[in-house]
Specification:
The chain is of the alpha/beta class and 755 residues long. It is built from 22 helices and 26 strands. The model has no long low-confidence stretch (mean pLDDT 94).
């Protein structure tokens, strides 16, 4: 139904730009404009039909809790993200939800961010590819997506007022690309403006962010919705391109819009633009069916969770569990799983799988006896020593001990950041004491953000990083432990040796209302590899129960700034498995400092034992580009680029170097350009050097020959100051004409004549 906006009063138009209540928009029945429901995701539907809140405190209707983004990121598999997105979309339809708030694609700048469980990776390529797959699949089913939190929302500390002070190159290369990819490849229904400020301006009324970048550059045609309670200036928000304020304000900000238009402070045309975008959302109005396949969605949650588990360590092939008679299971997480994070995405699951139950089922099939001991609890425990002693007794009489450890909602959640990477003290003691007596020890981790493995890593035989795996995560872990599923996850974030090694450490979480992104583009593995900082496990690391051989790297230049990489992958083991081909690019080309390597393409393939597959990956222009702050655009510098195939960001086993033509850029000269810029200019530089040497006396020429690096002493000086020091080595009039010729002509004779 097409609505004639001109038929609406200004007050009616303004009313459409804020919520009716906590989760829905306003209807105007006489014009056939329905109210639509927006509700939390991203990994499930949190549909509240009673008392509403935005922090997951109050119960919601039962729905499937699929693996959160921290797990999906480790799958490195867009098919996993797509299957999850489609299933969430089906449940949104069942609950009458028009817009699902997700996915979250913020970068994991620091492992301390309390909301890292809702984000995919420290790398923007993984975040963008998985996010786009999620959005495309979900919107194909019906509901719209709300990609969040736009932008530079990388901490919970003071999130509603902190200013993320970050340079534009860093924004463009690290914090914006995931959003850009999703907008341009998946056309999300909405983008959510974040709470924080960016360089002093709130995201919810930031015209550069919401209009210049999002709409004008990327072509976004959907609506911008605020994070819940993020609006600080509603009129400025409309002017900047922020369309829908959530939740409702009881009409107060609606009136502020009317008053601003009436006073001539806000163009009614901008209000009309926002109204059109909000009205477009109402086409996604859904009537609740109340029906979805609970059993099949739970089975899907189990499958996706198993595909996301990362096998970090497996000394002596202790996993998968086989040829043993007794297994000990230690830890309360085995019976009371933590499978999701705290806060607004907290789902009321349709059911919950405890790992111990499935372990017992699988063990029984194999004739294995299972014994369990708590070892620790998540609450204050006066019997902590007795629990640990009992766990040690159980472990001592078992062939393999599995310790389930991790973090509770008290350690990490939306709303606050973590203070340490360490596991709780009681859990550390259990791991160490059990490992001292157990024949073999396996640790299974349940955590939304990275935890330190130091102090116990070398004492255990195997480690499974389970992250938070959703409601079927317990069964998924058991499937991996017993080899029902071959682990294929890879780290989408680095596990450091120390918190202090993280590049954001000195600048997190900031002070006095500001957080300085002083590490620039050197985020996560980009820093660790460039600075050669040792880590416990690098980005991209992940083991398998089978083996793969990746050979025959062939690269081909397909244009001045594009290429392809092709490899052959063979499953050389005895099990069916999934393998991730990781393609990195390394270069020193251009005037900016580049990380030693950056992930530029990846592909996950499934191979039967002995099967071989050729994988070709395209490397587009952006795979080689950097953001040039002087030209205000992406640039591919002419030069050499090394295409690398890695087992991880720290382990490269094949590479080829390409010479790309790139962008031939001749930068205009000014009197503020340095002497080095002038002499390096491809047309002006040679003529200047010729003129300089021609005007030298024989003695000066001899001195110049004896000191060939003399120009380096002054090359950083602006030309204007250089002239003052030299008493006018070149006539100012000549330099002014050369400035014009430097970018208006390619006539070298004209340049030479001036000099």
């Amino acid at each position: 139904m097409t609505i004639d906006i001109s038929a609406l009063t200004l007050a009616q138009k303004a009313s459409l730009l804020s919520g009716q209540d906590f989760w829905s928009t306003k209807a105007i029945e006489e014009f056939g404009i329905p109210s639509i429901v927006l509700t939390d995701g991203p990994h499930g539907i949190r549909r509240q039909d009673g008392e509403a809140d935005h922090l997951g405190i109050n119960d919601a209707l039962p729905s499937t809790c699929f693996p959160p983004a921290v797990a999906v990121g480790s799958s490195w598999d867009p098919d996993v993200a797509a299957q999850l997105g489609a299933a969430v979309g089906r449940e949104a339809n069942a609950f009458g939800v028009a817009v699902v708030l997700g996915p979250g694609v913020n970068i994991k700048r620091s492992p301390l961010c309390g909301r890292n469980f809702e984000y995919y990776s420290e790398d923007p390529l993984i975040s963008g590819v998985l996010g786009a797959a999620h959005v495309n699949a979900m919107q194909a089913v019906g509901p719209g997506a709300s990609v969040k939190h736009f932008a530079a929302n990388n901490q919970e500390h003071e999130r509603m007022r902190i200013s993320a002070d970050v340079d534009e190159r860093t924004l463009r290369e690290i914090y914006l690309p995931a959003f850009e990819r999703i907008v341009t490849e998946a056309a999300p229904a909405t983008v959510m403006a974040s709470y924080n400020k960016i360089n002093g301006v709130y995201a919810s009324h930031n015209p550069w962010l919401l209009t210049e970048v999002l709409r004008d550059e990327w072509g976004f045609e959907g609506a911008v919705v605020s994070d819940w309670g993020a609006v600080s200036d509603r009129v400025a928000g409309v002017a900047a391109g922020m369309d829908l304020e959530m939740p409702g304000s009881g009409g107060a900000t609606d009136q502020a819009i009317v008053d601003a238009v009436t006073r001539g402070e806000l163009s009614e045309a901008l209000v009309d633009d926002a109204v059109r975008r909000v009205l477009a959302l109402t086409a996604r109005h859904r009537t609740s069916t109340g029906q979805f396949d609970v059993d099949s969605h739970h089975a899907l949650a189990r499958q996706l969770a198993a595909d996301s588990v990362v096998l970090l360590k497996n000394d002596g092939d202790v996993l998968p569990i086989s040829n043993v008679s007794r297994v000990a299971v230690i830890g309360s997480f085995a019976t009371e799983p933590r499978f999701q994070g705290g806060g607004s995405s907290h789902i009321n699951p349709t059911r919950t799988d405890a790992a111990l139950d499935t372990i017992r089922d699988l063990a029984l099939e194999r004739g294995i006896t299972v014994e369990h001991a708590d070892g620790f609890t998540l609450a204050e425990d006066p019997d902590v020593d007795k629990r640990r002693a009992l766990a040690v007794e159980v472990a001592a009489r078992s062939d393999v001990t599995i310790v389930f450890a991790g973090l509770s909602d008290r350690e990490e959640s939306e709303g606050f950041d973590r203070e340490t990477l360490s596991l709780p003290t009681a859990q550390l003691a259990v791991i160490r004491d059990v490992a001292a007596v157990s024949a073999r020890t396996v640790v299974v981790l349940s955590n939304g953000g990275v935890v330190s493995l130091e102090g116990w890593h070398d004492d255990v035989d195997a480690i499974l990083e389970g992250w938070l795996l959703g409601q079927a995560g317990g069964s998924a872990i058991a499937d991996v432990l017993f080899g029902v599923v071959n682990p294929s996850g890879h780290l989408a974030e680095t596990i450091p040796l120390r918190l202090q090694d993280n590049p954001s450490w000195n600048n997190f979480p900031g002070e006095q209302g500001h957080v300085r992104y002083g590490e620039g583009v050197m985020v996560g593995y980009r820093h660790y590899t460039t600075a050669d900082v040792p880590v416990r496990y690098p980005f991209g690391h992940g083991l398998s129960y089978t083996t793969f051989a990746t050979t025959a790297l062939v690269t081909e230049i397909t244009g001045p700034d594009t290429a392809t990489a092709r490899v052959t992958v063979t499953n050389t083991g005895a099990r069916t498995g999934k393998h991730v081909v990781q393609v990195y690019v390394a270069t020193t080309a251009g005037p900016v400092r580049r990380p030693v390597r950056e992930l530029r393409a990846f592909r996950k393939v499934t191979l039967e034992p002995g099967e071989t597959q050729t994988v070709e990956l395209a490397l587009d222009r952006r795979a080689f580009a950097y953001w040039d702050i002087e030209l205000d655009r992406w640039v591919v510098a002419p030069g050499e680029y090394t295409v690398q195939i890695g087992e991880s960001s720290a382990s490269i086993f094949a590479e080829e170097t390409l010479a790309l033509t790139g962008d031939v850029i001749i930068r205009p000269l000014t009197m503020d350009s340095t002497v080095g810029d002038w002499f390096a200019h491809p047309r002006v530089g040679p003529a200047l050097m010729q003129g300089l040497t021609a005007g030298m006396s024989e003695e000066q020429a001899q001195q110049a020959d004896q000191n060939p690096d003399g120009l380096k002493m002054v090359e950083s000086m602006p030309m204007q100051q250089f002239l003052a020091f030299t008493g006018g080595a070149f006539p100012v009039e000549m330099l002014e004409q050369l400035m014009t010729l430097s970018y208006t002509t390619e006539d070298q004779d004209a340049v030479n004549e001036l000099v």
